[in-house]
Amino acid sequence: MTQSQAQQGVFHIWELDLGAIENNVVIVDLDGTLVASGQGTIVGEAKGVLETLRTRNDVFLFSNHVDRERLARLAEEHGVSHISSLRRKPDPRILHDIPSSRHTQRVVIGDRAMTDGLFAHLIGARFIKVRRAKNGEESIALRVVYWVDDAVFFFVRAIKRFT
């Protein structure tokens, strides 16, 4: 897997070379990245992702989903911190809600360019876009949001190639 492929969202998070990410503050989106939107548990191959990342980084789970208790529970179950914020991505003020870290470099891993990617850009972080985790039960509204996000990401990536 090349860095270009990783940035294009070609792979699920569990297919990335996570060992190459070290000495960073890593903010991992929950919904659509580790689990399908609203799913209550991290299962299968996604389970090892947080364990691998936390061995060399300060890892924080974050989600724009309204269920903060689920976020806190999943973070605790997997030995990582979570960002407890009333703000939503891409608001860069979310950084004020992250506990201090020994690392200064930041990485945001997520499935949506318009929230996770823009958030990464606004906080000066590297963005790693991953293939979206879905369970086939997404609402029509969420499917439209995903389609628009993918179209915007494709368009922005195409413009970057020509500039």
> What is the makeup of the main sheet?
5 strands, parallel
Biggest sheet, strands in spatial order?
3-2-1-4-5
Report the end-to-end length measured between terminal Cα atoms.
25 Å
Q: What's the helix count?
A: 5
Query: What's the structural domain tally?
Result: 1
Structural category is alpha/beta
CATH architecture: 3-Layer(aba) Sandwich
**What is the CATH class name?**
Alpha Beta
| CATH homology-level superfamily | HAD superfamily/HAD-like
Report the sheet-strand fraction: 5-15%
Shape: globular
- Percent helix range: 25-40%
Low-confidence stretches: none
Q: How many individual β-strands?
A: 5
Mean of residue pLDDT values: 89
CATH topology name:
Rossmann fold
- The whole-angstrom Rg is 15 Å
The H/E string reads HEHEHEEHEH
Question: What does it look like?
Answer:
- Helix content is 35%, strand content 13%.
- It has 5 helices and 5 strands, in the order αβαβαββαβα.
- The chain has a 5-stranded parallel beta sheet with strand order 3-2-1-4-5, sandwiched between helices.
- The model has no long low-confidence stretch (mean pLDDT 89).
- It comes from Candidatus Kaiserbacteria bacterium RIFCSPHIGHO2_01_FULL_53_29.
In short:
The chain has about 160 residues and is an alpha/beta fold.
Show the helix and strand layout.
Blueprint: H1 3-7, E1 25-29, H2 47-54, E2 58-62, H3 68-77, E3 81-82, E4 106-110, H4 113-123, E5 126-129, H5 140-162
